Amino acid sequence: MDSDLWLVVAVLLLLAMAGCAAVLLVRVFKARRLLLDAGVPLRSKALFWAAVVYTVSPVDLIPDPVYLDDIGVLLIALRALHTAAVRSGPDREDEPADPK
């Protein structure tokens, strides 16, 4: 009975990690779509594509049953895209307002 319990726990953990990776991938695509017309640097756009390629690639730092590396790469890409959008957005706090 103990082996069945561990098997169920392992499967649930794997499903949870795969779900997190899928949710993060969707968020990266949504963030990328929002940044298409923004003045985002090429470096941030390249990071997005690198995260997508790494996530769907069969080559991983950690074998595929563990999605921690994929989740980490997607989190880094999301943070970089968000930072680039904030920096390039028209509502920057450090820029003076338009005089009219």
TrEMBL record:
Localization per record: Endomembrane system
Keywords linked to the UniProt accession: Membrane, Transmembrane, Transmembrane helix
Matching InterPro entries: DUF1232
GO cellular component: endomembrane system
Protein name stated in the entry: Putative membrane protein
Principal location listed in the UniProt entry: membrane
Name of a matching Pfam family: DUF1232
Membrane topology, as annotated: Multi-pass membrane protein
Transmembrane in keyword set: yes
Organism (species): Streptomyces venezuelae (strain ATCC 10712 / CBS 650.69 / DSM 40230 / JCM 4526 / NBRC 13096 / PD 04745)
Domain DUF1232: 45-75
Entry's transmembrane regions: 6-26
